[in-house]
Records
---
Amino acid sequence: MIAEQNNETLSHISDQYARVFKDSTTQAAPRTFRSPGRINLIGEHTDYNHGFVLPASVDKAVYFVIAPREDDQVLLHAVDLNEDYQFSLNDLSKPSQTWAVYQLSIIEQIHKKGLKIKGFQAAFGGDVPLGAGLSSSAALECCLLFALNEVFELGLDRFEIVKMAQKAENEYVGVQCGIMDQFASTFGQEASVIRLDCRSLDYAYFPFPMEEYRLVLCDTQVKHSLADSAYNTRRQECEQGVATLREFDPNIASLRDVSPELVAQHRDKLGEAVYMRCKYITEEIKRVEEGCQDLVDGDLKSFGRKMYETHQGLQHEYLVSCPELDFLVDQTLSMPEVLGARMMGGGFGGCTINLVAVNHIEAFEAKMKDAYRQAFNIDLPCYKVRITEGTNEVM
Ligand code: GAF
């Protein structure tokens, strides 16, 4: 069993909980919960098109050390920022502390469901790099909701937790994200990727072999502010594509129901921009299924080639990449030790994900760091990630 939690990070958060709440009258012993960040192997931007995705939860996580209170007050301590925020459960207006929007949005979802909680006090933090495309926000939302579910015995199952956390992000935070990140953080399984059908929420685990190749993330350190609004624009373009294609087949409910051939057939009617978006999505949905077959066949080379195809589509057709991401992927094209590489997540910055031969990882990182420094004058953090269990209570 791989040690899932980062013990150093965890003990720091526990220490900070003890320090911040040392004078609290709360009697209850604190409990600790963990939600990991996620990676995605293939299936980018397909979740909100009701297609397939292939994510996994990793050994970088958000932790909450939390105890219930007898009053209606919520006391939060953000360990990494050393900042506090306090509010009443009866006043969920937009917080002055911007990070508290995530916690407020979760409480709002609990209220909307007609469930009751009391106040609580919590210290939270973790080692999911922020803005790097590992979905730290989904991890934070899932962790708090899972923790409140346990502490106040709300009776939610994991599916409800995933859906409520996604709604929190959609309604309160304002990003029209799909369901992949919350699902991966909550349902992750050690050493396996999850093939998730984002329409039915049927899912299956596929063992991901890590003996000869490992997954390495290269963090551009770039987060373009365009990202959230462009994300919502891509969604609208996909919806526009569906509306146009429905004129030919009223049974089409989403791009999930459309083949790449049908998209090609109606290119003129779709218009070039929407055609490009639909082309990429319909091909990417197919790629997830074919990639799963590669895993079953033990053909990582073929799987790696699909990662490059995904990047091509995201770069040239879906238009969510950026020069820094393209540069990092291009660097790997001449490296035989890399089977596949592509940008990961929503885009416009964040990380590339690379499938690298175990014996060459040190050299790979050195080459990438060097090239990136020369091209952009930026230090390139690289993270070797392991696939771990999803959200849990740390005992
Ligand atoms: C972000 C979103 F939150 C996900 O739902 C998904 O759409 C992803 O971008 C792109 O695949 O992480």
---
Amino acid sequence: GGSIAIRGRLLWFDADPAEEGEGQAVRYVADGLVVVDNGIIRQVGEASVLLPRLRSETPVVDHRPHLVMPGFIDPHLHMPQTQVIASYGTELMEWLAKYTFPEENRYGDPAVAADGSRFLIDELLASGTTTAGVYCTTHPESVDAFFTEAARRSLRMVAGKVMMDRGAPPALLDTAEIGYQQSKALIRKWHGKGRLDYAITPRFAPTSSDVQLEACEALAVEHPELHIQTHLSENAAEIAFVREAFPWSKDYTEVYERFGLVRPKALFGHCIHLSERERAALAGKGATAVFCPTSNLFLGSGLFDLAAARAAGIKVGLATDIGGGTSYSMLRTAAEAYKVLALQGQKLPAFDAFHMLTAGNAAAMGLDNRIGRIAPGLEADLVVLDTGSTSALRRRMGRVETLEEELFALMTLGDERATVATYAHGHRVYDRSATRAKPLPP
Ligand code: GUN
Ligand code: FE
């Protein structure tokens, strides 16, 4: 509750700079003010215009000379993988079997799930990420733990129980019927509570039988408003496995199409090795492909072809994929996206990158009516960024002349140390100076 006004260099995107051009898309107010009331943005504009009209009791937080942007959005990550990140030497299928499944098996313990959720959310907020698309584990307790922690910080979050009825250790499996019932109960318990949304979450085709995918279809039909999240076409061995397991399907994407899982607000992680037919199917059905560059590099999965996805008309998100991914920071993620595209002769201008981290990811998740821009009526999720947070950045800034150059240096050299403060629903949920002042543990 209550009011607050935040002053700084405001930056957000009213359109996609790749489509509309910078002039239409980029909104920058060098000395701006955001007025927030009960968690909602009420006014945005020049500080010189808005300050004299502000109610005297409204506190003003002056973040000048720092940038104030919409909170970053991370459309694909795994809550139970904070202790899998940086596991050595494997690619996808072996990485799952050797490191990830044994670790996820611990998350049936509510204390483990609570600890993992607290750590993850601390890390996201310190990186300026205020919304994420989150995979929990097959255990309903892991979803309870994550949503409990997200609600405690008043965050907008999308999460779901992983459904997986084969191809993993028995203790981690549900069944088509149990997965359906547990998902139903979690939807009733959590979906639409505060800012929490439930996502139907079959892990990926290799770990679901036809019968389980039919159960997912039933959930999807019964809940057309829900997100769906899964993985698609990440790795050659995975694709070969799907070809064997679903001999009736002409390609990987058709498996999900057959069960009604390709639709708006369906988020497909990776989408690296798609055919033109598959791209057209995703685009035609309004689904989203999620580019996870640090994960794709770390697991050696391949290079996401952004130009082909855009040409096909697919909505694209950009995500960390913790813990296949190697950084919680969306700045690091944008930097690695730039390099993945550079290897393919493609470009990622800074304005496009910051659009993707904010309004672009909001649209990719179907949440653009709530978050992703600094505009009246939207929820007050904001990140305050210091473009001189390290000596390397400060040194580079000495020769930077334009906002675009400044942003490109920020994404290329920056990380969580650039986060000065993070606001969610108008509350300050991260404060760098408070973190720094904390005494060291004994
Ligand atoms: N495919 C199925 N499960 C996973 C996962 O946990 N991480 C990644 N990167 N890919 C997957
Ligand atoms: Fe993933």
